[in-house]
Amino acid sequence: MKLLVFDADETLTTTASGKKFPESPTDKVLKFDPKILSNPNWYCMIASNQKGFHLGFKTKDFIEEEFNYLDEITHHVFNYFLVCPDDGTTVWIKKNQKKFISFGYKYDYTQFVDMNFLTECKSLIGTFRKPMPGMLYLAEKIARSIINQDEKITDKIFVGDMETDALAAQQAGFKFFYINEWLAINN
Ligand SMILES: [Mg+2]
């Protein structure tokens, strides 16, 4: 089993409007056919910085709708969405169309009945914003906890569009590809 984590903005999608920031949660087009992602040997996740929330450009509901839409247009191929909305102290964890659950300094254990392993991830709090490696460590932790124990993770790959993505991958021990490189190999 390969763990494949993708950045979102400008890696998987670009705005449909051509603007730098999306005008609405559905102002998004995929950069490639998501069919390439439906490989039974791949466990796919997303790790996205969304500092627009912290800066007041986007609300949490807006971001949640954006990821619901992304989940739809990629035909639910991503198992989990990890989003860092601030300087690294919080990560929002989302599975398909469910609501974000928030993991950070002020989190509530009772939210994580299915994710007891998060109690072992407290040392990652503060490191979630890329180029820090926390979201990728967390992605690996989630994948290892959820994938059938008989299946080993043979490869960890992060695909992005920015140097901050490359640095996060390097620190977390993931192989890194820029999206164009990755598409050239897999398309
Ligand atoms: Mg990006």
Explain how this protein is built.
- Helix content is 26%, strand content 22%.
- It is α/β, with parallel strands linked by helices.
- A hairpin with a 5-residue loop joins strand 5 (80-84) and strand 6 (90-94).
- The chain is globular, with a radius of gyration of 15 Å.
- It starts with a strand and ends with a helix.
- Bound molecules: magnesium ion.
- The site of magnesium ion has 7 residues, from loops.
Protein traits:
binds magnesium ion; 187 residues; alpha/beta; 9 strands; 26% helix; globular; seven-stranded mixed sheet
Tell me the span between the first and last alpha carbons.
Answer: 19 Å
Task: Return the string of H and E elements.
Answer: EEEEHHEEEHEHEH
Structural class, from helix and strand content?
A: alpha/beta
In spatial order, strands of the major sheet run 7-6-5-4-1-8-9
Oligomerization category of the chains in this entry: single chain
For the secondary structure, the number of strands is: 9
Q: List low-confidence stretches.
A: none
Global shape = globular
Average pLDDT over all residues: 93
Instruction: Tell me about the largest β-sheet.
Output: 7 strands, mixed
Work out the helicity level. Answer: 25-40%
Whole-angstrom Rg: 15 Å
Instruction: Give the DSSP E fraction (strand runs of 2 or more residues).
Output: 15-25%
Bound small-molecule species: magnesium ion
Number of helices: 5
